[in-house]
Task: structure prediction
Amino acid sequence: MSTPTLDKHSAALDAAESGAFEQITITLRVRRFNPEVSDEVTWVDYQLEMDPKERVLDALHKVKWEIDGSLTFRRSCAHGICGSDAMRINGRNRLACKTLLKDINPEKPITVEPIKGMAVLKDLVVDMDPFFQAYRDVMPFLITKGNEPTRERLQSAEDRARFDDTTKCILCAACTSSCPVFWNDGQYFGPAAIVNAHRFIFDSRDEGGEQRLEILNDKEGVWRCRTTFNCTDACPRGIEVTKAIQEVKRALITRRF
Ligand code: SF4
Ligand code: FES
Result:
């Protein structure tokens, strides 16, 4: 027989499915760290009344705005576009703004912690500088030779489709920070940088492919990938990250792209 609490949660979840508004009590368990106060990490539970259709980001906002203004996290668009609120939610990399409470079993404490493999600056905020340095290192911009064209550079629909998947990246770092090679070796470029190199290597208008391939042929480049698929599973944009990395490896061997 289920407990009254579970019945209440189930009713709330049913109401959520039907579109009605109802509140449930959730426990948001947040990893807190403030180096200005202590070197110790603490886990703090917050009991919150939430609509199951709300998102983890809404729960974090509720804590910050109503309980403890010192809670620190990044977010901007709140709609899955800016990529700033990637975090580990119940042990999995996700965007807080795209994670509905009803989809992650709100009957149990919901754990929220920073993404792995990067230095934690405060609470859920990590140092993204090495991540963006790797992105800059692969030259994520169109490289061309010769004179400026007098009209736009044409491209067939087929050529455009060749790199369509990797144009969707929002640089959230969910892939890179889910990669065991990246955890163990801070020098590895990581999946996100390779995805963004792929976006230009396979663009028929670009003429910098050879340069990028040489950069990724480095000992910290694509050959570090162990094809664990963590990155593909983590990507909130559904990008086939591992496939993109494999295509870059193949291009390095065949020099055809
Ligand atoms: S490939 Fe996906 S997971 Fe990786 S940074 Fe881009 S959007 Fe985020
Ligand atoms: S806040 Fe912009 S992607 Fe979540």
Observations:
- The two ends are 61 Å apart (CA to CA).
